[in-house]
Amino acid sequence: ARKLQIEEGLVLKEINKQGQKLKGIKRNKTQKNRDNINYGIYGIEEKIMAQMVIDEQFLNYIEKEYNFKIFSNTDYYHIIDTLSKLKGKENKMQLLSNEMNNEQYGPTLARIMLLADEGYKLEPYELHEFLSKIEEKRQKENIQDFMGKINDISENGGFNRIIKLILDYNTFLIDAREGGIK
């Protein structure tokens, strides 16, 4: 750098710029964004839906215990309605795909049917983990709702509102005891 009469900082900058291509340090740090749909990685909700298509007892269990209020994708509710109508029939998968095969529900149903065709069996721990997260979320929402009611009473209090809060609190505690503490 001194012989060429160039600033040493510029030379070091150029050397380091070229050296980065040769170094393997950052080679594995590049991020590749992959769409899980194209790579066959299924979510827990899809696995539960596939299990419901395969096993009618499992469908009845989810309906009885949770009233199907565990899914975030609204397409699943339309598929469940159709699946409930097909209870007791032999070729449910074929009938379901015939009824629901349209542009709106087609891709969602295709992923569920693909998983069901593979004969996927949902592990009990996966279901338990998913359902416990949902219960925890519901309890947090109940607590936040209850705290909102307390804040409302502190601003606009009255005897009737306090009595109603106490009764709501009693039902809230009973609901929490039934499902949570063991």
Question: Characteristics of this structure?
Answer:
182 residues, mainly alpha, 3 domains, 8 helices, flat
Give the uncertain stretches in residue-range form: 30-38
User: Beta fraction of the residues?
Assistant: under 5%
Number of helical elements: 8
Class from helix and strand fractions: mainly alpha
What would the principal axes of the Cα set say about the shape? flat
Largest sheet: none
Integer tally of domains: 3
Into which percent range does the helicity of residues fall?
55-70%
Written as H for each helix and E for each strand, in order along the chain, the element string is HHHHHHHH
Distance between the termini: 75 Å
Roughly what is the average pLDDT, rounded to an integer?
75
Rg computed from alpha carbons, rounded to a whole number of angstroms: 28 Å
Please provide the count of β strands: 0
Can you walk me through this structure?
This protein has helices at residues 8-22, 44-54, 56-66, 74-85, 92-100, 106-117, 124-155, 159-179. The chain is mainly alpha-helical and 182 residues long. It folds into three domains: 1-30, no CATH class; 44-117, no CATH class; 124-179. Helix 2 crosses helix 3 (56-66). It starts with 7 loop residues before the first helix and ends with a helix.
Concise structural overview:
With 182 residues, the protein is mainly α. 68% of the residues lie in helices and 0% in strands. The protein folds into three domains: 1-30, no CATH class; 44-117, no CATH class; 124-179.
Write the layout of secondary structure elements.
Layout: H1 8-22, H2 44-54, H3 56-66, H4 74-85, H5 92-100, H6 106-117, H7 124-155, H8 159-179
Helix pairs in contact: 2-3, 2-6, 7-8
